[in-house]
Amino acid sequence: MKRLISVLLLIFIALPAAAEVKIQEITSPGGITAWLVEDHSIPFTALDLRFRGGTSLDEPGKRGAVNLMTGLLEEGAGERDARAYATELESLAASFSFDSDPDAVSISARFLTENRDQVMALLHDTLHAPRFDADAVERVRGQVLSGLRSDAKDPNEIAGKTFRAMTYGDHPYGSAGEGTVESVTALTRADLVAAHRAVLARDRLYVGAVGDITPEALGALLDSLLGDLPATGAPMPDKAEVTFEGGVTVVPYATPQSVALFGQPGIDRHDPDFFAAYVLNTILGGGNFESRLMTEVREKRGLTYGVYSYLVPRDLASVYMGSVASANGRIGEAVEVIRAEWARLARDGVTRDELDKAKTYLTGAYPLRFDGNERIAGILVSMQMDDLPIDYVTTRNDKVNAVTLEDVNRVASELLKPDQLRFVVVGQPDGLESTTN
C-alpha cells in the first residue's frame, strides 16, 4: 500500500496540461471502443468504465435497486466473500470505485502495471460474478436506509426531493435513485441480479484509460474484461417532460435557516447556443465571487454566504438550476433579488467587461481539471457520453473564446425565463408563502 501511495504522489507531481493530452480512439479485436491517453512515465494506469442508464433503469416498484446493486459490487465476487475480496484488492495495491447516478453506473480501477493481470481478473469477477451474499446485502441495505433516514431530516435533501417531483413527475428523474425506505426494504436478491443484468451491458458501455498501457494491450484487456458481458441491457427510459410553473413552494421545516432550490427549463448539451449559455451562466451565478447573483445577494445585501446557478443538461432532460440559503427572516428578500436579477439579465444583457472576465475565468480554469490519470480517464468517458469530438480537449477554449457579446445577450433574452422560475424553499421563511401547489 505504501508503494501505491508513492506512485499516486508521482501522478500528481507530473500532471499533463490539457493541451498536451493526446487522445487515441482504439477498437479492441472484439469490437469494444475506448479512448486512451498513453503515459509510460510511471507504471500506473487508470481505467474508467461507464454504463449509460444508471438509476433511471430501476424497474417499476424497485426504486433503489441499481443503487444498492452498485454498492454491493465490492462486497465479494466469484469465490471471494467480502473480506477475501478486500484483502486481495489491498494486496494488489489497487483500488476500485463504484458509483451510480440518474444517467450512468461508473466503475473505476487504478492499478500498477506489474499487477495488471491480477487486478483485471478481480475486476472481471466483480463485473460478471458479484456474490450478493445475504449478509452483505443486509449490511449495505442498512447503510442505504440509514442515509435515507438522515436525508429525510436534511433541508437540502428535502428541497431536492420536492423540486425533482414537481419538475419531472413520474419519470425516474422525479425521484431519488437511492429509493425510499419502503422500496429499499422490499428489495430481494433477485431484484439485485435483475438490476445487474439491466445495467452492465455492452450496448451502453463507454471506456476511458490513461497511463502505462499500449493500444494493443488495452484492446486485449477490454476483450478479456468486458467481451462476455450481455450484448444489450434494459431499454432506456423515454425523455422526461419538464414542467415549470413559476412561483414559490414552501416546505415547512423547523430550522433557523431556510434553503432554496430554484430552476427553469434549461438547454441541451448539443444545442448550438450551449457555449453562449455556459458563458452566460458564469456571469449570472456560475460559482465565482464576481457573478451577478453573488454580488447582488451576498456582497451588496449580506443575505447569504453563497448563491449559485448551474446548467444541468442530463441525458433525458435539461434544466437550469440554482441554490441559496439564508436566515428565515431574510430568505424572502433573497428570493426577490434572485428573481429580479434573472429578469434584469434577460432584459438588459451583460457588459463587455463581464464577458471578458468570464472567458478568462473559464479558459484559465479548464486545464486544472486534468489533475491526474483518474480525472483524465473520467473526462474521456464523459466526452464520449456527451458525443463530443476527440479533439474537444484542445478546441474547447476556442469555443469559449468564440462566444460574442451578441451571442450571450441573445441567448440571455431567449433562455432566461423569470416568469417560469420556480423556488422550492425549505424552512420557516418569514413572510414567504407558497404560490404553487
Q: What can you tell me about this protein's structure?
A:
With 437 residues, this protein is of the alpha+beta class. It has 2 domains: 2-226, Cytochrome Bc1 Complex, Chain A, domain 1, CATH 3.30.830.10; 247-427, Metalloenzyme, LuxS/M16 peptidase-like (Cytochrome Bc1 Complex, Chain A, domain 1), CATH 3.30.830. The chain contains 16 helices and 11 strands. It has helices at 2-13, 65-72, 82-91, 116-128, 134-151, 155-168, 181-186, 189-199, 215-226, 274-285, 292-299, 331-348, 352-365, 373-385, 392-401, 405-415; strands spanning 24-27, 33-38, 44-52, 95-101, 104-112, 205-211, 247-252, 257-265, 307-313, 318-327, 422-427. The model is unreliable at 1-19 (pLDDT under 50).
Helix-strand layout with pairing:
Layout: H1 2-13, E1 24-27, E2 33-38, E3 44-52, H2 65-72, H3 82-91, E4 95-101, E5 104-112, H4 116-128, H5 134-151, H6 155-168, H7 181-186, H8 189-199, E6 205-211, H9 215-226, E7 247-252, E8 257-265, H10 274-285, H11 292-299, E9 307-313, E10 318-327, H12 331-348, H13 352-365, H14 373-385, H15 392-401, H16 405-415, E11 422-427
Helix pairs in contact: 2-8, 4-9, 10-13, 10-16, 11-12, 12-16
Q: Fraction of residues in helices?
A: 40-55%
**CATH topology-level name of the largest domain:** Cytochrome Bc1 Complex, Chain A, domain 1
Tell me, rounded to a whole number, the average pLDDT: 94
Please state the CA-atom Rg, rounded to the nearest Å: 23 Å
Number of strands: 11
Reported CATH architecture of the largest domain: 2-Layer Sandwich
What is the number of helical segments per DSSP (H or I, 4+ residues)? 16
**Strand pairing plus helix content: what structural class?**
alpha+beta
Query: Largest beta sheet, briefly?
Result: 6 strands, mixed
> End-to-end distance, in Å?
55 Å
CATH class of the largest domain reads: Alpha Beta
- Beta-strand portion reads 15-25%
CATH-wise, what's the superfamily of the largest domain? Metalloenzyme, LuxS/M16 peptidase-like
The total domain count is 2
Order of adjacent strands in the largest pleated sheet: 1-2-6-3-5-4
Which runs of at least 5 residues are low in confidence (pLDDT < 50)?
1-19
